[in-house]
Amino acid sequence: MNAVISVSQVKKGFRGCDALRGVNLEVPPGVVFALLGENGAGKTTLIRILTGFLEADSGEAQILGMDCRAQSLEIRRRIGYVSDAPALYDWMTPERIGWFTASFYPPGFQARYEQLLRQFEVPAGRKIRHMSKGQRAKVALALAVAHEPDLLILDEPTSGLDPLVRRQFLESMVDRAATGRTVLLSSHQIDEVERVADWIAIMRDGVITLVEPLQELKEATQQVLISLTDPLVEFPMPNGRILNQTANGRQRQLVVHRLDPDSLQVLRNTSGVQNVEIRTPTLEEIFIACTRGDSQPIPAEASTGT
Ligand SMILES: Nc1ncnc2c1ncn2[C@@H]1O[C@H](COP(=O)(O)OP(=O)(O)OP(=O)(O)O)[C@@H](O)[C@H]1O
Fold first, then answer.
1. Scanning 86, 145, 164, 284, which has the fewest C-beta atoms within 10 Å of its C-beta?
2. Nearest residue by C-alpha to atom 16 in ligand 1
3. Binding site membership of 286 for ligand 1 (Cβ less than 6 Å)
4. Which residue segment(s) compose the domain that 125 sits in?
5. Is the CB of 40 under 6 A from ligand 1?
6. Is 33 exposed, middle or buried (0-12, 13-18, 19+ CB in 10 A)?
7. Is residue 37 within 6 Å of ligand 1 at its C-beta?
8. Which ligand 1 atom minimizes the distance to the CA of 47?
């Protein structure tokens, strides 16, 4: 199946800052794909390159088979995008904005937009400047999806929204993925991502350090709790990708992706190793291990979602 988003070795620097240091990413169709990362990891920069608002210094980025640099206008017609701070003309009413925006899209836009406003219970005749943050976010979402895009890109869509509005947003995303459309969602909200995402990519310091279907990621990642007889005991590291390791006296804690069971047995039989326990980490613990630990960027050929 063709990837909806395909990014290869994308780099972007600003003065004194390497925001993206070689991003590789493939997003398959029909999924809710979450891009997670701490502040400054590079999520917005990547999204701005995908949507044609920024040019990469090097590398290739494609959406729906089109080049993000050369075909950005066509891409913007085909996708929906809600930024972390949607810009709406605040002297207009949602009704007026819908009428104005409809002129850029094929027939049918306005009817679908008005139907979405009713569904979101937005007061369509009130000026944007008199609306709450949640109401504005709903207008931005209705504008972004009324042309029925194949790909919807949302940058921190629920920050600052109340739980009810957040739930409406999230449910509408899952509904979209269920109809074969794709949603790329950037977020810090691990709990809500865990409820809606099919795929997870974790970004750190301008690179993707982990990308996998959420369910597989949870099944393939384990916490190894090791008790030693003495803090100075040396032991063989189990095989697998060590995402993070911490030490506290005689205790060691590892977060390991694709842990090899044979090497765990070797660890258990090592003299000075008193006890080895295995736990399943939460997504939040995996995220923290990836963003605070010493996990390295994944190789390009492994960062594929197709
Ligand atoms: N226009 C710019 N000029 C200079 N530096 C920038 C610019 N835009 C982004 N950066 C820097 O690039 C890095 C990545 O920023 P980016 O906004 O992509 O991160 P993010 O993951 O979206 O963060 P957040 O979750 O806080 O929104 C940061 O160090 C940021 O300061």
1. 164
2. 42
3. no
4. 29-50+83-205
5. yes
6. buried
7. yes
8. 18
pTM of the predicted structure, to 2 decimals: 0.87
Q: Are residues 171 and 198 in the same domain?
A: yes
Tally of structural domains, the chain: 2
Tell me the CA–centroid distance for residue 56 and ligand 1, in Å. 14
> Is 2 part of any domain?
no
Q: Does the pLDDT at position 299 exceed 50?
A: no
More confident residue, 23 or 172: 23
Question: Tens digits of per-residue pLDDT, 45-65?
Answer: 999 999 998 999 999 999 999
Is 58 contained in some domain?
A: no
- Which pLDDT score is estimated for 300? 41
User: What Å distances lie between residue 104 and 73, 92, 119, 143, 146, CA to CA?
Assistant: 12, 17, 23, 11, 12
Query: Would you say 114 and 44 are in contact if contact means Cβ atoms under 8 Å apart?
Result: no
- The pairing of strands 182-187 and 151-155 is parallel
Q: What percent of the chain has pLDDT over 70?
A: 94
